[in-house]
Amino acid sequence: MKPDPVDRVELPLEVEEFLVWLSSERGRSRNTIQAYRRDLLAYQRWLESRGSSVLSITTDDLVDLVAERRSSGAATTSIARQIAAIRMLHRYLAIEQLRPDDPTSRLDGVRVPSGIPKPLTEAQVTSLLDAVLGNEPLDRRDRALLELLYATGARISEVVGLSMGDIDFDESLVRLFGKGSKERIVPYGSSAAIALDEWFSPSGRAHLVPVRWKRRGDAEAVFLNQHGGRLSRQGAWLVVKKYGDRAGITDHLSPHVLRHSCATHLLDHGADLRIVQEMLGHASISTTQVYTRVSQERLWEVYRSAHPRAVRAGGT
Asked: pTM of the prediction?
């Protein structure tokens, strides 16, 4: 693979350590790291133009950055992506105690016009999953929850209803009970597997186990709340919203959007429609076909914006 010129540009030590952490601790791909590096390189150059640094920048300065990007005519999606990378960096710096505060914590999200509800882009999903930075028990739980929701396309009720016997850790399979208690077996990938292993390690779920279980069945629950009971649908929804806010995804995020995104991205990458239907637990393939229309619409959006002869002169 041809080296990307951006790889040869050295960033401040704190930023380089953050990128190494993304790769080694979060397992992000080379392409994802390069995308972060490009956005953070632009951020670093902007900081230098103001005589500032990642250790001294303030929330007011970041408000100015967003305003400058808007006035320059930059696409809203481009601004949102860069701010998501900046949020991740500053969250990391705060957790690692490299600075005492997180200047992005009070920064408003950049709203991307949505119109008809749309799935997240793959970059937005990465930003969402990367927003869980800590290693406390609740951080491990939240990371596992988000990874599993996106990996399987499961409904939120299916995930919070999981018992430990429903997960085959050796084969990376999960048994889900959908509408009408209809059972299906769904695989999950390596990122979700790592997150689940961390959650079920001695530093994860074991710390939330109460001295005495309050309700029958809670002892077998995969996801627990901070009081040691089974995590509720509302509690899981709040987890999704919490990290959506951190990642700057504030418009239309919900657990169902993660399900929607999983299906759309599978089809984007060539998955068979019938397989996606089975994975999502749709009774009718007509329900699954909605996602093919979304994928086609996204394909046309990319084509129209990228192909030099896609738009007719004097009109669309």
From this structure: 0.65
Q: What is the pLDDT of residues 169-223, one digit of tens each?
A: 999 999 999 876 789 999 999 999 999 999 999 999 999 999 899 888 899 999 9
User: Could you read off the pLDDT of 34-46 as tens digits, one per residue?
Assistant: 889 999 999 999 9
The Cα-based distances of 306 to 230, 277, 302 in angstroms read 47, 31, 6
157 with 268, same domain? yes
In CATH, what number is assigned to the domain containing residue 216? 1.10.443.10
Question: Are 155 and 301 within one domain?
Answer: yes
Pair type for strands 167-168 and 173-177: antiparallel
Nearest to 124 by CA among 166, 165, 164, 80: 80
Element (H, E) at 149: helix 137-152
- Which positions are catalytic? 155, 179, 256, 259, 282, 291
Round to whole Å and give the CA distance between 276 and 291: 10
Q: Is residue 275, in this structure, part of any structural domain at all?
A: yes
Answer yes or no: do 138 and 272 share one domain. Answer: yes
**Calpha distance 103→312 (Å, rounded):** 45
Place of tokens 């208690």: 181
Burial, 229: exposed, middle or buried (Cβ in 10 Å; 0-12, 13-18, 19+)? middle
